[in-house]
Automatic annotation (TrEMBL):
The keyword Transferase applies. This is Peptidoglycan bridge formation glycyltransferase FemX. It comes from the Bacteria. InterPro entries: Acyl_CoA_acyltransferase, FEMABX, PG_Glycine_Bridge_Synth. It holds the Pfam family FemAB. Signal peptide: none annotated. Belongs to the FemABX family. Keywords: Acyltransferase, Cell shape, Cell wall biogenesis/degradation, Peptidoglycan synthesis, Transferase.
Length: 372
């Protein structure tokens, strides 16, 4: 059965996303407004009856001086990835994007390949034999994911290099998630390791108060974010980016984006943003002060967000990216160590894939990106 693809309205796109249990926060129409430096378009796939059966948010980034674009579908599109005839979804998409002036297409299939539970990871770290997640047997894997990868390769798609750490893609290939469905809050807290439970109690006894903020509190978040950027040596985004994100996402859905701030004795010590689409909740950005870390504001704020995600009916709380390193000497090891304490699972996604519509321009872009 063939599928027809066309540009869809914001309302059609939003209705389709709302009809599904979850989709990436980067595949909702408002994300196109967040990424204002890119042109955006909503695509829809229709079956023979005229029913909308798939959707995708495309971001177009123009090359300097020429009207040629990189077309990017972050963590999308939202289609039936396990369809044996995957080409009937992707072929019309490539034809449409080419007609829009795209020279290369990048997408991130939202397909989980493997999962490792916290116990498995902790045992591997203690054993000191495995250096990476991929070196240990998963607790769960999706056999159909390997079929999807095979179909993509045969159709001419190229898999992004991850450099072994899971951070080579634009979006992380490895993430850490805490399942919420079918569990009580007590079950979830019992899943935390001893250190996490102790830190949450310490924050409570110390008088750390976590409050939900609004647009006017983004400045408080941003001040802490700048401190974090200097400490962790990354280039921070300007306050205007977060203000734009808030306005675009909350206009689409009041609960799409939330802000949390942890105070101690009236002083803001940590702040986070949380994003929600359907039953999937993400810890998006985090920031913390350099001092008073002993009162454990970061653990307190995470526990508050998990409880609120649970109250919203979420089935999954997503702590986002990790490296797949299990080497205690690796500077990225602390990231997985902190998140493993929640008792959740590491998940490996299929990663990002490229389709060069113009091989010369695609190669030039690759060369440019490698030199950045």
């Amino acid at each position: 059965m063939s599928l027809r693809l066309r540009t869809i309205t914001r309302e059609e796109h939003l209705a389709f996303i709302a009809s599904r249990p979850s989709a990436s926060h980067m595949q909702v129409p408002a994300w196109g407004q967040v990424k204002s430096e890119w042109r955006h378009e909503s695509l829809g796939w229709f079956d023979d009856t005229g029913e909308l059966v798939g959707a995708g948010l495309v971001l177009y980034r123009q090359l300097p001086k020429v009207k040629r674009y990189l077309a990017y579908l972050p963590e999308g599109p939202v289609i039936d990835w396990f369809d044996r005839d995957l080409d009937r979804w992707l072929r019309p998409m490539l034809a449409h994007l080419k007609s829009q002036g795209a020279f290369s297409v990048k997408m991130g299939p939202p397909v989980v390949v493997r999962r490792w539970g916290a116990t498995t990871i902790k045992e591997a770290i203690a054993g000191q034999e495995a250096r990476r997640l991929r070196d240990i047997g998963p607790d769960w894997y999706e056999p159909r994911a390997f079929e999807v990868a095979d179909r993509l390769r045969k159709a001419g798609w190229l898999q992004g290099e991850d450099g072994g750490a899971g951070f080579g893609d634009v979006q992380p290939r490895y993430v850490f998630q805490v399942p919420l469905a079918g569990r009580s809050l007590d079950d979830i807290q019992r899943g935390f390791n001893q250190l996490w439970r102790r830190n949450i109690k310490k924050a409570e006894k110390s008088g750390v108060e976590v409050v939900q903020g609004g647009y006017e509190h983004l400045k408080v978040f941003h001040q802490l974010y700048l401190v974090t950027a200097e400490r962790d040596r990354f280039t921070p985004r300007p306050l205007g980016y977060f203000e734009q994100m808030w306005q675009a996402l909350t206009a689409e859905d009041p609960d799409r984006m939330r802000l949390y701030i942890a105070y101690h004795e009236g002083e803001a010590l940590a702040a986070t943003t949380m994003l929600t689409v359907g039953e999937h909740v993400w810890y998006s950005y985090g920031a913390s002060a350099d001092h008073k870390r002993e009162v454990k504001p970061s653990n307190a704020i995470q526990w508050r967000m998990m409880r609120d995600a649970y109250a919203l009916g979420a089935s999954l709380y997503d702590l986002r990216g990790i490296s797949d390193t299990l080497d205690e000497n690796d500077p990225l090891f602390g990231l997985i160590q902190f998140k493993v304490g929640t008792g959740g699972q590491a998940a490996e996604y299929l990663g990002e894939w490229d389709f060069p519509l113009n091989k010369l321009l695609h190669k030039a872009l690759d060369l440019y990106m490698s030199r950045r």
